[in-house]
Design goal:
Elements: H1 12-42, E1 50-52, E2 64-66, H2 71-94, H3 96-99, H4 102-114, H5 122-134, H6 136-151, E3 166-169, E4 173-174, E5 177-178, H7 180-196, H8 208-217, E6 222-224, E7 228-232, E8 238-242, H9 245-258
Antiparallel strand pairs: 1-2, 3-8, 4-5, 6-7, 7-8
Helix pairs in contact: 1-2, 6-7
């Protein structure tokens, strides 16, 4: 598969060439700094120390402090930041992240935060995104299963399960305020519905937390979006009533595919 089909708005070759050009200039700059430091030292002149702080880009990476002569260490630190930003940009622009389940997203977020990413070359970009694109269906279906297990509070292993017309979520409200964990799970559900509906992934900033919070502020006991009606009670639990039976059916088909002996298989 042509990688340009995966990241249509970006020229992979151009991006890789730009990275090469940036790194070449970084090397030239470090060589000049090393030369300037040696000249200053020979002339008994002062010269500042090099400090590269990666904290803003790579969690857990120490600052690099020392002589400019330790240019390999400094170069590696700079290249790591360049590559982390590049991979983050590609993941966002490709649209592949939309199909990732929580597990895949967390893995990539952790790698980006720690600076543990492959070298940003045309070959590694093509290989990585071809693999991710090929696995997008599996990742999405895995996300549907995870979403069901988290939201269906009465789910037990090996028992028949499927989405019905309504589900009950525990602890939607905590001390009178929306529970971030539960609203995040509802956002995952909206994401699944949106993709099955052929729509773009919704903006998380306009998600379930704000929906519930705004309704509570208006002294309401319910709220709704395009896919479900949400109602909450004094005990903090909530009822989620689905609006789109056709999308619920699609989710049940996914559950039936992975658990053919469960009740969900009957929807086939």
């Amino acid at each position: 598969m042509d990688t340009t089909d995966l990241v249509q708005s970006i020229s992979i070759t151009s991006l890789a060439n730009q990275r090469t050009a940036v790194i070449e200039r970084v090397r030239q700059a470090l060589d000049l700094l090393c030369e300037a430091q040696e000249l200053a030292k020979a002339a008994h002149l002062g010269f500042p120390r090099l400090v590269l702080d990666e904290v803003y880009a790579c969690r857990g990476r120490p600052s690099v402090t020392g002589d400019y002569a330790k240019r390999d260490e400094a170069e590696a630190a700079i290249v790591r930041v360049i590559d982390v930003r590049g991979w983050s940009y590609l993941l966002s622009e490709s649209g592949v992240r939309t199909f990732m389940d929580a597990q895949a997203r967390e893995q990539w977020d952790r790698q980006l935060a720690e600076g543990d990413v492959p070298e940003l070359t045309a070959a590694t970009i093509e290989a990585t995104f071809t693999q991710l694109y090929g696995a997008r269906g599996d990742m999405f279906e895995r996300g549907v299963i995870q979403c069901f297990r988290r939201l269906s509070w009465n789910y037990k292993t090996n028992e028949p399960f499927r989405f019905g017309k309504r589900i009950i979520v525990r602890c939607l409200l905590s001390s009178g305020f929306p529970n971030h964990r539960v609203t995040n799970e509802l956002d995952d559900l909206v994401r699944v519905f949106s993709i099955l509906d052929g729509k773009a992934e919704p903006d998380h900033r306009q998600g379930a937390y704000g929906l519930v919070s705004d309704a509570r502020h208006a002294r309401k006991t319910g709220a709704e979006n395009a896919y479900f009606h949400l109602r909450w009670f004094r005990n903090g639990n909530g009822h989620v009533t689905f609006k789109r039976a056709d999308l619920v059916e699609k989710m049940n088909l996914i559950l039936a595919k992975h658990y053919p002996n469960a009740l969900a298989s009957e929807v086939r």
